[in-house]
Amino acid sequence: MTDMLERSLKKAFIDQKIEGSLYDPQMIINDTEKKQYMLNVLQNELDTCKEFFFSVAFLTQGGLAALKTQLADLHTRGIKGKILTSTYLAFNQPAVFEDLIKFPNVEVRISEKQGFHSKGYLFKQSGYHSFIIGSSNLTMSALKTNYEWNVRLTSYDHGQMIQDIQLHMEQEWQAAQVLTSQWVYNYKKTYQPMTYYKEVNTIQDPALIDESTPYIVTKPDPNNMQKAALFNLKELRKTGAQKGLVISATGTGKTYLSAFDVLQAKPKRVLFIVHREQILNKAKSVFQEILGEQKDDYGILSGNKKEITATYLFATIQTISKDAVMQQFAKDHFDYILIDEVHKAGASSYHRVIDYFKPNFLLGMTATPERTDGFNIFELFDYNIAYEIRLQEALEENMLSPFHYFGVTDYVKDGELISESTNLKILVEEERVTYLLEKLQYYGCSGNIPKGLVFCSRKEEAKTLSTLFQQKGHPSTYLTGEHSLEEREKQVERLERGEIEYIFTVDIFNEGIDIPKINQVVMLRNTQSNIIFVQQLGRGLRKDPSKEFVTVIDFIGNYKNNYMIPMALSGDVSRDKNNLRKDTFDTNFISGISSINFEKIAKQQIFSSINQASMDSMSELRKSFQLLYNRLGRVPYLKDFEEQHTIDPLLVANKKLSYYDFLVSIKQSEGTLSELENRFLMIASREWLPGKRKQELVLLEKMMSEPENSLSLKGIQQLFIENGILADEETINSVLNTLDLSFYTGSMAATYKKQAFIVRTENNVFLSSLYKEALVNEYFAYMMSDILATGLLKSKAYTTSKPLTRYQKYKRKEVLRLLNWDKQMVDQNVGGYTSSKDEFVIFVTLKKGENFTGAQMAYEDELIDYSTMKWFTKSPRTMSSPEVQKLMKAEKWHIRVFAKKSDNEGTEFYYLGEVKPVKESIIELEKTLQNGKKKKVVEMFLKFLEPIDVTLYRYLEAGQE
């Protein structure tokens, strides 16, 4: 390691061209575009450390919350740490110290040093120390969004700087006061918070303003998202459109948006329709705030009020949909009608209203337009989507309360994790209740006084858990669909007043209820759909002065639908398993000062669910097809799936022989293809639709635009150069081998039947006669162009300056094709490695499993650290074997390593990068075969030219356990 540490210092301070390593000095700046944050560095250090010591002046509950799963996992492993902080400037609130005292494996002390303002993080790792010093306190803003400068360095125990840091930390630690419950009690009694002046845009609900803090009230203005939506609505009306749909996440200000649009549209009479009477007064107050006007201009139409002469009328659907009420108005009485929660418009009451009135413009607003009852909201609004803002965008714009999501392991009974089939008796037994309360108290909530909504799987579970929580000193109630609206509202008011801590519920509160003061959302049920998951999450995301953030605690059992959790959190509904795995081990996709964390075992449950789930079942593909069909109002094609960020087009294209076959199977084909034409689609879908090399797509698209013309080799080279892609002779030859199918051998060649797309002479390339003949069929030409266009969209995920993109996944045959092999090799013949020209490729399955049949012996290939892999050759091999001799002369070869966690991940491998063997590590030894006999094999250590990405390494390394 000494050599690596010396090299890292030389790289940092002498020559940046030196190969990097894990130990390189690192400048840490929060970078939203690259999704790189100080928070991730701290989490990664905690994941691998043997002990830690933080010396940090300021902390917030949110900053601590983002590290709680790491600290819980460390406690499970028996690893302890220290935190030294202060009361400097009275920044640290009492609730922070209440949280700190909950950590069983963290000792906390309070420095009484005047002006204590340090920000240092020290970690003892295996064989070295790492430490971070800079400007970031332990607050979510400092860890994710602020412009901060921090530096990470590594050192041996006997290094001068690490000795100085440890000495100063220990001196301050010994002089500091131990954090105790009594200390927290005394601090709480005398605490005087700093006074802040907050500028409040009155776009907030005035009722939510904290009167205890001085405010400067400014004129309300639309936020960025609302400005964009208003522009789109204005442009939509210019086209003559009479309907528009706004899709906006719960809590993002749909009512304010509608008021702003009324302000810009200037209608004479407005009707605002809601589904619950309790929303009417809130909506009316928002419009009064934005529009002004006289009080008499605003009226309510409900069961209790009939103020029908008002210019701006706010009505419940239950009242306005009655014939006797509707007929009091002329059909064109209102020139602007708005419908809130318009996804309910499938109900007959909404149909009656929409069919009766003839406004100049009808605006629908919803967070969830996708319906499962077959009703098409998009069609109702003439497919005019004026604007769409989902959860991720809303968080980016700071429109919602930040949240900290914790995926925690559910209760284990007799070695069995809670599942869909668990008996109710186990769900409500006292041991589980104790376990749940321990987790709820550990992960806590903003302010430490819970106002929680708990989603259960069964009514009896909700009822019994409510009683048991009550008995354990946590006032609670339960609500189901059997309770009246009045009873629900009564209990919600009790929750908001702090009379109860929890409401347990089953089949209500997914939507249509607004409880801004909720600071804890608890999920005790299997995730049935990503839509419902987001709806339940959204119950706590409306901003409120009473909370800094929302805590979401998801108890993850042995559920087959666990794969839906990363799908819902990321908003990625592609059903691509690689994406779902990535969104589980790398949660940086979440924006702003929110965070997503999974306990180790809970994460394993999700990976297991992803591996076992059938992502391409016909029922799911048909459902995804229908949703997109509803949105577009026509048959969607592959490019539509990609552009609309819905299901991965590869799934629908390859479910059958081709996407055409899929359309035929669901009776949606818009033309007819011959067997030959369909085979062309099949080949293109399997080989080029993934977009892993752009050249084939660009060339075929160009030649299809001029089917009668040929292209010279120089012309192809120029075409590639113009498109910014590799244009060397070997790459061009490989592309042509692919397009004329000469690359393919064995069963693949038999499947493709040598049905070439091109033919070539010595200097020119033509479309084949078969392919030109197929292009006469316009439907075939359209579907082929669709494949190429979609492949080009997908190719944006891959670098164009190199044949392979680091950390992307590839099949063996794709690697050989992209590295310009002349011929395809059967996977079995490639096995663990192969070589050609100056390329040596290695494929490693890290977790072989008991039934591993890839070799006669159990190979122990292993990632040692971020820069090193232990690797074995095939057997029998000796130091004189040809491949070993090649590796001994590594300077002549590009040696590339591809790895996957296990065979459960399918046939694709992550490209980890280039390596060089450590020559002194290459040794010959004997390994025992499965039949007990011994054979010779060669072992060596491979050094990556650049360290492996930390999050991917942690994911793969976990598979070795």
TrEMBL record:
Q: Which residues form the Helicase C-terminal domain?
A: 432-602
Which superkingdom? Bacteria
Q: Which residues cross the membrane?
A: none
* UniProt-listed SMART domains: DEXDc, HELICc
Q: Which InterPro entries match?
A: DUF3427, DUF8090, Helicase/UvrB_N, Helicase_ATP-bd, Helicase_C-like, Helicase_Restrict-Modif_Enz, P-loop_NTPase, PLD-like_dom
- Pfam families in the cross-refs: DUF3427, DUF8090, Helicase_C, PLDc_2, ResIII
According to the entry, every stretch annotated as the Helicase ATP-binding domain falls at 235-387
User: What GO CC annotations are associated with the protein?
Assistant: cytosol
Gene3D superfamilies associated with the record? Endonuclease Chain A (3.30.870.10), P-loop containing nucleotide triphosphate hydrolases (3.40.50.300)
Instruction: Provide a Gene Ontology MF annotation, just one.
Output: ATP binding
Against PANTHER family, the record matches this protein to: ATP-DEPENDENT HELICASE IRC3-RELATED, TYPE I RESTRICTION ENZYME ECOKI R PROTEIN
What's the name of the protein? PLD-like domain-containing protein
Source species of the chain = Carnobacterium viridans
